[in-house]
Amino acid sequence: MDWRDIPSLAALKAFEATARLSSFSAAARELNVTHAAISQHVRALEAEFGCELVFRQGAGMGLTDAGRSLALSLGEGFATIASGVRDIRALRHDRPLIVGMTPTFAENWLMPRIGGFWTQHPDIEVTLQPSFAVVDMRRDGLDLTIRYGHGIWPGLDVELLVNANYVVVGAPELAAKAVGASMRDLCSFPWVFETNRLEQRVWAQEVGLDLSATSVSNVPTNSLVLSAARAGVGLSIQARALVEGDLAKGNLMCLHEAPLSSLGYYLVTRRVPRSDALKTFIRWLKTAAG
């Protein structure tokens, strides 16, 4: 790369901020410089390129075709630089690990176990970010996400943590009426689902449960789903790993269990060097999953 062909980085930063924020003043505030300094940088770029990059638009400003092209390139370039910086900083042992997963997985699988990790590794700080939203690992600064699905996420490193061997469960009194019933027959029973929980609904479709033909009660958390199921309000679809205790105690009965498939919870990381702390946490997760 010949740096003599590249304008001042300060000028490029000033223009990128101006284009992104559509304001000289906002760019000046973000970069902690004066309005005049931003204007001077933009004018210098226009002089160097021999074309206009911005134009006045009422009380604001707009971008010329050349300005839009440059803004796009700079945005992508600075994002790549920022990503590289985050990746290097992520290798520091003393920074918290940022781990994303669904709230359901966090509440029912991870939280009952993670105390063991903190006991064994008190020097490793882990920040959990439960969310139903699909996250961008680079943008959100995540070191690891635990995702549910078939394990197909191009461009990321993916490793199965635990098969989501889902079962249909119900309280003994309700389940006794459904012993031996097919999934089609189970459509006539009341059901309880967690609002917006993707896992249960995907699995229901896989095993042939027609949700449009069932009476469904939706509640906000899986803890409430389990409470309702134990109380006999309706049948529920749960990962077997989450209800082993209830099945052993007789609080719930298993009515249906589908064969294992590729559906499961997967460890997902970006294709960048892993810190020692992340390697340790992933090893612990695998051990905890058995």
Automatic annotation (TrEMBL):
One Pfam annotation reads LysR_substrate
What InterPro entries does this protein's entry cite? LysR-type_TF_proteobact-type (IPR058163), LysR_HTH_N (IPR000847), LysR_subst-bd (IPR005119), WH-like_DNA-bd_sf (IPR036388), WH_DNA-bd_sf (IPR036390)
Q: Name one GO molecular function term.
A: sequence-specific DNA binding
Residues annotated as domain HTH lysR-type: 7-64
Q: Which organism is it from?
A: Litoreibacter albidus
Q: Which family does it belong to?
A: Belongs to the LysR transcriptional regulatory family.
Q: Which UniProt keywords apply?
A: DNA-binding, Transcription, Transcription regulation
In terms of superkingdom, the source organism counts as Bacteria
Q: What is this protein called?
A: LysR family transcriptional regulator, glycine cleavage system transcriptional activator
A GO BP term here is: DNA-templated transcription
